[in-house]
Each structure stands twice: as structure tokens, then as C-alpha cells.
Design brief:
There is one protein chain. By secondary structure, the protein is α+β, with helices and mostly antiparallel strands. The chain folds into three domains: about 60 residues; about 80 residues, Immunoglobulin-like (Sandwich), CATH 2.60.40; about 90 residues, Sandwich (Immunoglobulin-like), CATH 2.60.40.10. The protein contains two helices and 19 strands. The strands form five sheets. Strands 2, 4, 5, 7, 8 and 9 form a six-stranded mixed sheet that branches. Strands 13, 14, 16, 17 and 18 form a five-stranded antiparallel sheet that branches. The longest helix is centred in the last third of the chain and has 38 residues.
């Protein structure tokens, strides 16, 4: 029974550790800057929205433009934590973030281009172990066949509609761009890879690793309860046989 008690204590410790992981992951990722559309590059004269998600209290959207820290100009959805620019221009390129008292979000380096091609690359860091898809976009078409580059080195020899990076790791970080023949080349943007998954407070998305750990923990609890039940049943069965075999009973 000592082994059973130890097993039970280990399972309880695992559940407490899992609860702390979920709590820490939520606290780390509940505040972030959301960009809509969710990409780092945008054509000029298009609409882009910025939202500070998860902050409590007075929150401000900030931008660094030519080394100067500013509050961006908004056309609609104008609050201290939300901003929609109905028509962005080249001068709206820069590094955006949200901040409140003692708290800052991730920084997002947005590029506004007057060129004919942009790279569809996520605005938020992608989590290690997940997959990410890059696409070329022109002003006339949502996707195009193109050659994708990482740090100015082509990633393949023939044009493709998209570039899928599987099982993302830190080694996949770098500057990416794409070239569409007879149309043009997109600017280069940095693909950021993080340890945690950013998720919207209104969604049900959770860190995949935490979900896997939860599944393993629940399986451990089930097996532990099964073992304890078998031991309990065996003990009472043996005690019952001893009583039956005792001639003094």
C-alpha cells in the first residue's frame, strides 16, 4: 500500500504542476498585439487594424517610426487600445506594440509597400513544433506562383503557390521574401519563432504541448486508480480467503 500511496502522491504533484503550467502560459500570452489581416506586410492604401488584447486599464498603441516614438493616427475604431487605419501608407511602416502601466506586448514590425508583391507571413510569433505557410500575394491576385527566399537564399528552384515550413524550430527564424516572375519581389520580413502559442482571449486555442501533457496526466491518473483498485480488491480477497480457511471462525 506504500507504493500505492506514493503513486497517488506523484499523480497529485503532476496535476498541480500541470495547473501551474496552464496558469503561466495563460499569463504569458493573454496580452498581445493583434494585427488584422494577420500578416507583417501590407499594400499601401489598404485597411489594417491593430488591437491590444488582454490588457487591463488604460492601454496605448505605440509605434516607432524613424527612431521616434509616436501614437499612430487612426481613421476608425479609435480607442486607446484599438486602431483601424482605413488607408495605410508607406510612412505607416514601423514597429508597433501595446503598453499599459508596467506591461508591454510583443513588438510587431509592419511593412507597408507600394510594390506589386507582398509576402503573406504571420504577424505573431509561431510556436515551435507547429507548421507555418508562406504565400506570395500580388495586387491583382490573392496568391501567385513564386520563388521563396530565406536570408536572400532561394528555398527551391521552381515557382510554388506556397511554402510550408513543418515542425518549426528556432533555426527557421530569418528574413523571408518571395519573387513572382514578371511582377516583382516582396519586401523581406523576419519570421519569429516562440516557445509559447499566442491565442485570442475569445478563442479556445491552447498550447498544444499543454494539451498533450494533460492527456498524459489523465492517463496516468486512470492507470493509478486502476492499480489501486486491483490492489484493494486483491487485499480484500486474500483477507476473505484467510477468514474462510481459519478453523476458529
Amino acid at each position: 500500500m506504500e507504493v500505492t500511496a506514493l503513486c497517488f502522491r506523484l499523480v497529485m504533484l503532476e496535476l498541480i504542476f500541470l495547473r501551474e503550467q496552464v496558469h503561466n502560459s495563460y499569463n504569458q500570452n493573454r496580452t498581445f498585439l493583434r494585427i488584422t489581416p494577420n500578416r507583417l506586410q501590407h499594400f499601401d492604401a489598404t485597411s489594417v487594424s491593430f488591437d491590444c488584447v488582454g490588457f487591463v486599464g488604460l492601454t496605448h498603441l505605440k509605434i516607432i517610426r524613424n527612431t521616434e516614438e509616436l501614437n499612430p493616427s487612426c481613421d476608425s475604431k479609435r480607442t486607446t487600445s484599438s486602431c483601424t487605419m482605413d488607408r495605410v501608407y508607406l510612412e505607416d511602416s514601423g514597429e508597433y506594440w501595446c503598453e499599459s502601466e508596467g506591461e508591454r506586448s510583443n513588438r510587431v514590425n509592419i511593412t507597408i509597400t507600394a510594390g506589386p508583391v507582398i509576402l503573406d507571413i504571420p504577424a505573431l510569433p509561431v510556436m515551435q513544433g507547429t507548421n507555418v505557410i508562406l504565400r506570395c500575394r500580388s495586387k491583382n491576385q490573392s496568391t501567385n506562383l513564386g520563388i521563396f527566399y530565406k536570408n536572400d537564399v532561394p528555398m527551391h528552384s521552381t515557382p510554388e503557390e506556397e511554402m510550408k515550413i513543418e515542425n518549426v524550430s528556432k533555426s527557421d527564424e530569418g528574413f523571408y521574401k518571395c519573387h513572382v516572375s514578371s511582377i516583382g519581389t516582396s519586401p523581406a520580413s523576419w519570421l519569429s519563432v516562440g516557445d509559447q502559442l499566442f491565442y485570442d482571449s475569445n478563442s479556445k486555442s491552447l498550447n498544444v504541448r499543454i494539451l498533450l501533457r494533460l492527456a498524459v496526466t489523465m492517463l496516468s491518473v486512470f492507470l493509478s486508480l486502476l492499480v489501486m483498485g486491483c490492489l484493494y480488491f486483491k487485499k480484500h480477497k486474500v483477507n476473505g480467503e484467510d477468514v474462510a480457511d481459519d478453523p476458529d471462525v
